[in-house]
Structures are given as structure tokens and as C-alpha cells.
Design goal:
The complex is a heterodimer of chains A (about 240) and B (about 290). Chain A is an all-alpha fold and about 240 residues long. Chain A contains eight helices and no strands. The chains are: A mainly alpha (about 240), B alpha/beta (about 290). Chains A and B meet through helix 4 of A and helix 2 and helix 3 of B.
Chain lengths: ~240, ~290
């Protein structure tokens, strides 16, 4: 029963966002603000994770490929496909669920507890569309961009680790990158990125928006938001892989 | 004028408000008083439609809030200003941005006109040189004043204040009370204040509604409240010995037995306490 009422309440929150904005300029301003907060705020962690993700992937692939018949280019191909198909969209989004999810849930939770949301409601502002919609839109804009960046940096990390560790030369790595490249994989990764962006932002907004109580509940809401987002991301990952690949 | 008609509200099995009817008069500071948990905040939140009433009606100048569609409510809410208990200022905005926010959202004024209005209201609440400060950088009293400035910036017809004095020292509390009272008179606003601050009751209580366990128990003015004979209300208002003594003194004054110029020692020497007992109904609880 609780699960159904939670889903119902979540859907009502999403439905409540679709109303005419009171002032389009203010909504645009909020969207830009959230895009900077979500996008720029996560840039550093995404860059670091991606480079190391690619580097570790290259080193471990080389360690497992002991057969001398297999060309060295295979390492680059495996790194490329692993990064594009799984690491960049899924791993990065799980990290972003922690970074962005807790931030969104904490921010909205604090606004709820300190009656800032009530203050906006009393002014006659639809808080679902003014506070939640820009966050979801900003996540839909910036998270796929971060995922693309993660792909590039992940592949570059593999190249760097390959050459620095003496595993394979940069020329061999570059040659391997363009061999058997399937462009559909990138579209698949982007489909994942959009889905995960929606999950992270909407689930975190839901838990933050509906906080009841005090500071302790804000912390709980953030934790629940991150855990729920992570589980839904993994579930959606499996569903998308089953249907799109 | 705001009319509350037979309003009831419950949360689950818990009945919070039961059949409350009252009138909040225009140009007056209307106070809702009562102990913690008596339903003051719930009643006020029903009045601004943050909570839906289970039964009854809230009528704003002849228009029933209960029967309004969402769009009509939005329009009405633009005529409502509200000061929250914790001020509810937006943490990420400066004082100036907080006050300007309703203007940005609901007007198409040029920036210069908006700034003029912001500076006017900040000056009205006696806040200068705080425009660029963030809420975290100002005191509790200043936050309340910024809250009032934000509430009145759109020149509302109705002003709601939820415990405007909570967490403030007595002097600042009186300043805030007087400010709200003056703003109410200047702009002919219908002001509704939730409070359990006795200074507020005595200073600005032009129309007082006393709630007890979610029911209306008493209604009157700050003049009438001193001489009321309602047991529960008296227990609430004159909770301390000091206030009971103050009440007795006021009664002696009213009856002309003493005047403010006389020395207190003289009055006591003449048996002031007996005069009180003879002169009126003291509400001192039985020993």
C-alpha cells in the first residue's frame, strides 16, 4: 500500500509540474541556475572518475588478454565499448545520483522544513513547476553532456594508462579505437543518460519536496533519494539493455 | 474582511479544529491566541489554503476561498502577504533579492521602479544598509523585518503573521508588533496574527480569538480580555504570578482606587491586596 501511495504521490508531483509559468523569465533564470549547479558542480568529479575508470579498464583488460594471437588493438576496442556502453552512462550516473541527488533532496527538504516552499505557495507560485521542473530539465540537459564528456575522458584515460604503462602505443590504441566502432552504442548510451537523468532528478525532488519534520528527516530523505535512484538506475539499465541492444 | 464560517479540520483520526466561526476585520490587527497545539497555525494555514478545510468556509471579502478554482486562488494569493514563524527567507538570496522576488515574479516593472519599491519597504521596516546581506548574516529581528518587507512589497490586502515574536527579545518583539500594527493602519490591511505572546495581546489585540483544543472559547478586544471571566482564558493569559499582579493593579487603576503617580509602598500599606479582592474578581488560582 505504501509503495502504491508513494508511486501515486510521485506521479502527482510530475503531473503538477505541467502548468503555465507565472513568469517565464524567472523560470528561465532558475533553469540556468540549476544547470550551472548540476552541470558545473559535477564536472570535477565526473572528470576524475572518467579518467581513472578508463585507465583501470585498460590496465585490467591488458592483464586478462594473455593470448599472443589477439592483437593489442583489442584492448582499445574493449576499453572503448566498456566505457561507452556501461561505465560512462551507468557508473557516472550512479556517482551523480549521490552528488546531485543528495543536493536536490537536501535543498528542497530544507526549503520545505524552513517553510520557504509554503512562502512561495502563498505568493501564488506553483512550487512544483518553479522548483522541481527546472531541476529535472537542467538534469536532462547537463547529465547527457557529462556522460559524453565521461566517454571522451574515459577513452583518453585508457590511452594514457596504455602508453604510460608500456601496454600499447598511442598509435595502436588510436587504431583500435576506430576498428569495429558501432555508432549505435553512443545513441544507446545517450538513451541511458536521459533515462538516468530523469530518475536522479525526479526521485530526489520527490523525496526532498515531501520532507516532513526537521533536520534529521532532511538527511533521511537525501539518503533514501540516493538509494532509490541507484536501485532504479540499475533496474532501468537492465531493461534498456534488454530492449535496445 | 475575512469570515471564518463553521470551519472544522482533522488529520486522520485527530480532530484539530471544531466548528470555528469568526470575523477578521479590515484595518485591524486580529489575533488568534491559544496554547501550543490549540490549532492556531492549522487555522491560519486553512485561511491561506495551505490546508483544505474538512467542513465550513473561509470567505475573503465575500468570495469563498473554499469554492475557488486553483487559478482564482492564485489570484487571491497575490493579495496575501505572510510572515512565517522562522521568517522563511530564501537562503540563497540577499535581503534585497528576497524582497524583490515577488516583484520579479508578478510585475513587469522596470528594474529602477522595483528597486525604488524595495528600498521604500526596507526603509519602512527600518532596515537600511542590509540590502546586500544574506539571511544568515542578519539577526532574528532583522529577518522578521525582512519577512514583513517581503510580505508587504506587493501591497497586499491581507497580512498573515505566524508567531511574529517567537525567538525575539521583549523589546524587539514590541517593535515588530508596533510595525505590524502601523502597517495595518497605514494600508488598511486585514491582518491576522497567531501568537501566544501576552505583550502582543495587550499592545495590538484589537480583535482577539482564543482557541482551546481546537475550539473557539472566547472573542473580544485587548481591553475586554483583562476583565474577562473565562477560566481557561485567564489561566492562559495570567499564567505567571507577575501577570496576575499586573492585572490586579490594572483593575485598581480602572476602578480609580489607585493612580500611577502613587507610591506602590503606600498602596500596599493601605491594604492594596484587600482592595483588589473587594474591588473586582481576582483570577488568582485557589491555593
Amino acid at each position: 500500500m505504501t509503495l502504491f501511495s508513494t508511486i501515486g504521490s510521485y506521479l502527482l508531483l510530475i503531473k503538477g509540474m505541467f502548468t503555465k509559468p507565472e513568469n517565464i523569465k524567472m523560470y528561465w533564470k532558475e533553469l540556468m541556475h540549476q544547470s550551472v549547479e548540476i552541470g558545473m558542480g559535477s564536472l570535477g568529479i565526473v572528470a576524475v572518475i572518467s579518467v581513472f575508470m578508463g585507465a583501470v579498464s585498460a590496465v585490467q583488460t591488458a592483464y586478462q588478454l594473455t593470448n599472443p594471437i589477439l592483437p593489442k588493438e583489442t584492448i582499445a576496442q574493449i576499453v572503448r565499448d566498456t566505457v561507452i556502453l556501461e561505465f560512462a552512462p551507468t557508473l557516472v550516473c550512479i556517482v551523480l545520483a549521490g552528488v546531485i541527488g543528495s543536493k536536490i533532496a537536501g535543498e528542497l527538504g530544507n526549503m520545505r522544513v524552513s517553510e520557504q516552499i509554503d512562502a512561495l505557495e502563498i505568493m501564488g507560485i506553483n512550487t512544483k513547476s518553479y522548483l522541481v521542473a527546472p531541476k529535472i530539465l537542467a538534469a536532462l540537459i547537463t547529465i547527457p553532456l557529462l556522460v559524453v564528456l565521461a566517454m571522451v575522458l574515459g577513452i583518453y584515460g585508457g590511452r594514457l594508462a596504455g602508453s604510460l604503462g608500456g601496454i600499447l602505443s598511442t598509435d595502436t590504441y588510436d587504431k583500435g579505437l576506430i576498428e569495429n566502432f558501432i555508432p549505435k552504442n553512443v545513441w544507446f548510451a545517450l538513451a541511458k543518460a536521459y533515462t538516468f537523468a530523469f530518475i536522479i532528478s525526479s526521485v530526489s525532488s520527490y523525496y526532498g519536496y515531501n520532507v516532513k519534520g526537521g533536520a534529521l528527516e532532511i538527511g533521511r530523505a537525501s539518503t533514501t533519494a540516493v538509494i532509490t535512484s541507484c536501485i532504479l538506475i540499475l533496474f532501468a539499465d537492465y531493461i534498456l539493455a534488454s530492449f535496445l541492444l | 474582511m475575512i469570515e471564518i464560517k463553521n470551519v472544522s479540520k482533522s488529520f486522520g483520526d485527530k480532530q484539530i479544529l471544531t466548528d470555528i466561526s469568526a470575523i477578521m476585520e479590515t484595518g485591524k490587527t486580529n489575533l488568534i491566541i491559544g496554547t501550543s497545539g490549540s490549532g492556531k497555525t492549522v487555522l491560519q494555514k486553512c485561511m491561506v489554503a495551505l490546508f483544505e478545510v474538512d467542513e465550513g468556509e473561509i470567505i475573503f471579502d465575500g468570495k469563498s476561498l473554499t469554492a475557488m478554482q486553483e487559478e482564482e486562488r492564485k489570484e487571491l494569493r497575490q493579495q496575501i502577504g505572510m510572515l512565517f514563524q522562522g521568517s522563511a527567507l530564501f537562503d540563497s538570496m540577499t535581503v534585497e533579492q528576497n524582497v524583490k522576488f515577488p516583484l520579479d515574479m508578478f510585475t513587469k516593472w522596470p528594474l529602477s521602479k522595483k528597486m525604488e519599491r524595495v528600498n521604500d519597504v526596507l526603509e519602512r521596516v527600518n532596515l537600511k544598509d542590509t540590502n546586500k546581506k544574506f539571511p544568515a548574516e542578519i539577526s532574528g529581528g532583522m529577518k522578521k523585518r525582512v519577512g514583513i518587507a517581503r510580505a508587504i512589497v506587493l501591497k497586499p490586502k491581507y497580512l498573515f503573521c505566524d508567531e511574529p515574536n517567537s525567538g525575539l527579545d521583549p523589546q524587539t518583539s514590541i517593535l515588530i508588533d508596533k510595525l505590524i500594527h502601523e502597517i495595518t493602519k497605514e494600508n488598511n490591511i486585514t491582518t491576522v496574527i497567531n501568537t501566544h505572546d501576552m505583550n502582543s495581546v495587550m499592545e495590538i489585540g484589537e480583535n482577539i480569538l482564543y482557541l482551546y483544543h481546537g475550539k473557539k472559547e472566547w472573542e473580544g478586544t485587548n481591553k475586554e480580555i483583562i476583565f474577562n471571566k473565562h477560566d481557561k482564558l485567564n489561566e492562559f493569559i495570567f499564567a505567571s504570578e507577575f501577570l496576575r499582579d499586573a492585572k490586579d493593579m490594572r483593575m485598581l487603576e480602572e476602578k480609580g482606587i489607585i493612580d500611577n503617580d502613587r507610591n506602590m509602598d503606600d498602596i500596599l500599606r493601605e491594604g492594596g491586596a484587600n482592595l483588589v479582592m473587594e474591588g473586582g474578581d481576582s483570577n488568582k488560582p485557589e491555593e
